[in-house]
Amino acid sequence: MLNSMDYVEEELKSNREEHKIIMQELKTLGDKFEELALEVRGLPEKILEKADRRYASKTTERAVYALIGALCLTVVYAIVEVVIKR
After folding, report:
1. In angstroms, what CA-CA distances link 63 with 26, 36, 45, 57, 75?
2. Rounded distance, CA 50 to CA 76, Å?
3. Spatial distance between the Cα atoms of 81 and 83, rounded to a whole number of angstroms
4. What is the C-alpha to C-alpha distance for residues 14 and 32, in angstroms, rounded to an integer?
5. Residue 11 and residue 9: Cα distance in Å, rounded?
6. Predicted structure pTM score
7. pLDDT (tens digit, 9 = 90+) per residue, 17-58?
8. Which run of H or of E encompasses 33?
């Protein structure tokens, strides 16, 4: 009978150790899940920042093209003015 009690105690000890390991792994998994949730929460802000930078660069690009177009028109207008006066 003592032998079977030792076996039961060993099994209980083993189960407790396994339970402890499983609980530690669950805690680690929960921590990782929380970190992921924080990253996902910040994702819309990052997307908006990237879109704002892209929009700003597109606006700047359009402004530069408009200035180049105005400069080209001025040069063409000056050439036409010189040709007409001759």
Report:
1. 55, 40, 27, 10, 18
2. 39
3. 5
4. 27
5. 5
6. 0.45
7. 999 999 999 999 999 999 888 888 888 888 888 877 777 778
8. helix 2-85
